Each structure stands twice: as C-alpha cells, then as structure tokens.
Known about the structure:
Order of helices and strands: HHEEEEEEEEEEHHH
Amino acid sequence: EFVEDQDTFNLLKNIDVIEKDKLFEKISIKKWELLFDEWDIDKKLYLIKKWNISIEKYKTHLKDSTKQLSVLSKWNFLWESSIDENNSWVKEVLAKALTNTEVIAISWEDIKEFVKKSPEIWYEMLQFIIIETNKRLLESNKILTSSWEIENTINSLNKITQRSIFWVIDKIQDISGVD
C-alpha cells in the first residue's frame, strides 16, 4: 500500500503485528451505526482500518440533531475522551460510520500490556498519535482564531451600510484565505 506520509508509513509497517495481537479487537460497523455516542464511558483507542468515521456533536441536549466536526479516514485514530469528576473516560463527541467501516480497538488496560510486550511498536503508534493530535490542534486553533477575528470584525461595526458589508466580506476573505 502506497503511503505519502512517513508517520503513517511507520505505523503501517507494524499493522500486521497489531492486527494479529489478541489485545486488539476488530470491530465492523455498518453504515450510519455509532462506534460510540456522546457521553458514553469508553477507555478505548480506535484505529480506523477501512473507510470513514464522522465525528459529530449534538446541537442540543435532546440529541435530535448533530453538527459534523470532522471526518476521519483510513489509518486515523480516535481517542477523544475527557476524564470526569468520577475518573470516568467520557466521550464528548459521537463517532458514526459513513460507510461499512472497520476499526481496530484496544482498551486502556490492554495498552499497558501491549507497551510491555511491544515497546517499539507502541513507540511508533504513540509518535503517530502525538503528531496527528498536534495537527488536529493546529487546525482547531486556526478555525477558532479565524472565528474570533471574524466576530471581532463584525462587532467593530458602528453602523451597517453597504460599504461596511463589503468591508466585512473582504475581511472574511482575508481571514479565511478564500477569494
């Protein structure tokens, strides 16, 4: 399999070992099924083996509609949880299959065992996770900063005129890098 990115290549060179290891669980999810739901307690690390997973957040507490935050594809990982006041690992998003999807999962307890058994492979996985997490944080920061700049631009208006509307549009184009 051709992979452009060196970090993904480093992970994939060990994928056979990971898939054969009994500590890892293979999970098949049908299109539109949830891998996990928002507020689930879950201490697993997931690696997407095939196809795409939509990461979404409910818009209201009624759970009647969601907002898509991102789409993760093959060889991406999911480990998004927060630790609540009871020391539980709570999912703050939901993960939904966009097609029939396969993932590989390992629990937090089994990770400890895997680190002892295969420290070199875990090192490659951890390096991949850190680099991908950093990329996600940088992208989130860019989005938040852009949103803040756009909000400040709009809030700085004293009066809405045709000229100010075009000025705001120009600022949004500058901030977002769109023509």
